[in-house]
Amino acid sequence: MLRGTKVGLRARHDEDIPVLRTELYDDVVNGSRAESAAWRPITPGSKDPRLFVDDTEPGRVPFSVVALEGGTLLGTATLWGIDNHSRSAHIGLGLLPACRGQGYGTDVVAVLCHYGFVVRGLHRLQIETLADNHAMLRSAERNGFVREGVLRSSAWVMGEFLDEVLLGLLAQEWKPKA
Ligand SMILES: CC(C)(COP(=O)(O)OP(=O)(O)OC[C@H]1O[C@@H](n2cnc3c(N)ncnc32)[C@H](O)[C@@H]1OP(=O)(O)O)[C@@H](O)C(=O)NCCC(=O)NCCS
To answer: What is the pTM assigned to this prediction?
Structure first.
């Protein structure tokens, strides 16, 4: 397991799946904001890639996020779009609604940076998020990500086009927390 100061990132366990499906992916607004695709429900027992992990897929590493203290499930974190030629990847995360706003997201980003830069030897990490997602923007910026651009009206979300912000962090800029 990867450890931050408050969170652990571990493999997806079977018992995580109903909790993530109900609390995260059944939520139409959350799903529409987090996925760059139209929301659709996940049938219980299906092998939907949002929940089920394919360990043979080299470009995508999904984790379940747990509290270091007590081990309760907090959400998901993913290193995706891994490009071993240009040594870059994207990061994504989603916390259960009751677990937001308590500093976990900032710590998850820190752990994903450690995984990307130290464990995987990557050179660049990237995040795309909606321009009004202040918690995600702050979680990224607290870890050194810088805003590199605005993708104007790039996301169709619940009846309107929204801007997305692209943030990047290079290995040599990253300052791991002690
Ligand atoms: C985005 C998300 C991962 C952030 O994690 P979090 O645990 O809620 O964020 P933190 O508690 O670490 O807070 C990070 C910063 O954002 C601020 N913040 C938190 N919630 C906020 C809110 N609703 N509005 C404005 N700022 C907020 C915090 O004050 C903190 O700022 P600070 O460092 O200056 O004190 C989490 O809110 C989430 O899962 N949201 C839904 C899914 C999502 O949007 N995923 C990202 C898709 S790209």
So the answer is: 0.97
